[in-house]
Design a protein that fits this description.
The structure holds two protein chains of two kinds. Chain A is mainly alpha-helical. Chain A is built from twelve helices and no strands. Chain B has a domain of 179 residues: MetI-like fold, CATH 1.10.3720. The longest helix of chain B has 35 residues. Classes of the chains: A mainly alpha, B mainly alpha. The interface between A and B is large, with 88 and 90 residues.
Chain lengths: 257, 269
């Protein structure tokens, strides 16, 4: 037993207090009524609440569409950025990441204002565009990283063995870059479901996403129902994480600098 | 590669960048006019910049306090996160088996959780423990979501380090504190610095977690200030020059970091 392993202890206590306990409290509050008695009514309320269910379905729909849009636009960009012949400068990559450092609310407000100026009605279309705009760098960066790490000799070998460029892409490059795509999906999908503020700004309060109803309930002191809605989101996070491997998002985000 | 592919690739990247930067350019352009609302041009003027610096704008104390809070909270949270995360990384590195897996798993949770879950869960914690919310709770919340990234950035440096040099320092008569200061910290410094920078920028940009943990004492960071402003309808006009200045600073810092990095890399080759 190495003594230095005990250095993990303070952080362990910190994590239990500020991560594990708060998550257990979400569970506890969602199973209580306002006076603290056990009840399942918060959970059943969600499944019988047409508005909440509709918002939930819409959020998942918008998140799927946004994720697909980000892959569709972001993959070619990442591919071009990672190609030595097409892009030689690291500065172009920085330019793609840079907008993330500008306050997201301010950028979103400016985007909405641009739509207004162009006379475009705020609604689902502008919501998707704005979301894609906000999250695109989070998709480009992990894919770019994965493509950069990739051993180029696989693609060259395939080429030497007679594969056409499109075959090389479909059978070698694309499968090898999938871990990057998955981390991008992690970084785009869940945050899209849970955003609030951004969706309100982009649709002039016309469209609410799931994050907004959680926020409204918590702010109106309906903690128990808010906690139940959070719990439902946690379940979805658990499922998607299980499907994709949770460390990937972490690795991708951790490497942003 | 065919030239048409090259041209297409270049055009694709630049069109994308143009779209990405349109809203930012929009803010910068309209920071040079006096009009109250975004998108309203009333002729070139640097009045908003002057207002920002001589504090002669409406509600100037609110905006300046928000900027000050944002910076102070980011600084406090990232300093604590860097220290806590570095010590934790050393500990986790020396753990084995199930304990190591548990710590890695726990460390991943805050990174996977969306902001709103982190915010709501910590809000419930502070309510549950009866802690009144304000600066302290916001800083604690920011430490919670920043520290995992420090751990993640320090860990590779531990793996690259020769594990025997710390013991060697002890054998040669250094106290553990001296060995930490003179052997471990220099070896881990690059990871600590990138962890610190990442923590600082994430704290600066945070909205949801701050929103839920700031309580009702009227504590505002830049994000919550902008949110409240937009809900009232009508942004403080001086936000435009402020954002333009922030953008310029970040642009310069990032370009300098990256040019230095690519120089170092080409020196090595």
């Amino acid at each position: 037993m190495n003594k230095r392993s005990s250095w993990a202890l303070p952080y362990f206590i910190f994590l239990v207090l500020f991560v594990v306990l708060p998550l257990l409290l979400i569970l506890m509050y969602s199973l209580q009524d306002a006076s603290g008695n056990f009840t399942l009514s918060n959970i059943t309320k969600f499944f019988t609440d047409k508005d909440a269910l509709g918002t939930f379905a819409l959020s998942i729909e918008v998140a799927i569409e946004n994720t697909l849009l980000c892959i569709l636009i972001g993959y070619p960009a990442a591919w071009i950025l990672a190609d030595n012949k097409l892009n030689r400068s690291a500065v172009t990559v920085v330019l793609f990441i840079l907008p993330m450092w500008i306050n997201a609310l301010m950028r979103t407000l400016a985007t909405a204002e641009l739509f207004n100026m162009a006379g475009i009605q705020l609604g689902k279309g502008t919501l998707l565009f704005g979301m894609c705009y906000d999250y695109l760098p989070f998709m480009i960066y992990p894919i770019y990283n994965q493509l950069k790490k990739m051993d180029k000799s696989y693609a060259e070998a395939a080429q030497d063995l007679g594969a056409t460029p499109s075959e090389v892409f479909r059978k070698v490059t694309l499968p090898l870059s999938m871990p990057g795509v998955w981390s991008g999906v992690m970084m785009v999908f869940m945050p899209t479901v849970s955003t609030f503020a951004i969706s309100e700004f982009l649709t002039n309060n016309k469209i609410k996403l799931f994050g907004t109803i959680i926020q409204e309930n918590i702010n109106n002191s309906m903690w128990n129902y808010g906690a139940a809605l959070s719990l439902i989101m946690l379940v979805i996070i658990g499922i998607t994480t299980m499907l994709q491997g949770g460390e990937k998002r972490a690795e991708a985000e951790g490497g942003l600098i | 590669m065919r030239t048409s592919t090259k041209v297409f690739a270049k055009v694709y990247l630049w069109v994308l960048l143009l779209v990405l930067y349109a809203p930012i350019a929009f803010i910068v352009v309209f920071s040079f006019t006096e009009a109250k609302s975004l998108g309203n041009w009333t002729g070139f003027s640097t009045a908003l910049y002057q207002n920002l610096f001589n504090g002669s704008m409406q509600n100037s104390s609110g905006l300046l306090a928000a900027v000050k809070n944002t910076l102070l909270i980011a600084l406090a949270a990232s300093v604590v996160a860097t220290i806590l995360g570095t010590i934790a990384a050393i500990g986790i590195y020396h753990l084995h088996g199930r304990k190591k897996n548990v710590m890695t798993f726990l460390n991943n949770i805050p990174m996977i959780n969306p902001d709103i879950i982190t915010g709501v869960s910590l809000f419930l914690l502070f309510v549950f423990l009866g802690i009144s919310q304000g600066y302290m709770t916001v800083i604690l919340a920011h430490i919670t979501f920043c520290t995992p990234y420090v751990v993640l950035n320090v860990m590779p440096k531990l793996q690259q380090m020769n594990p025997n040099i710390y013991e060697a320092a002890l054998d040669l008569g250094a106290t553990p504190a001296q060995a930490l200061r003179k052997v471990l910290v220099p070896a881990l410094r690059p990871g600590m610095i990138s962890g610190f920078i990442l923590s600082f920028t994430m704290s600066l940009d945070d909205f949801a977690v701050t929103f839920f943990t700031r309580g009702t004492i009227g504590l505002d960071t830049l994000s919550t200030y902008i949110y409240a402003d937009a809900r009232k309808g009508g942004l403080t006009p001086e936000l435009k020059p402020l954002m333009s200045i922030i953008f310029l600073i970040i642009l310069i810092v990032l370009l300098v970091i990256n040019i230095r990095q690519s120089k170092q890399q080409s020196d090595k080759h």
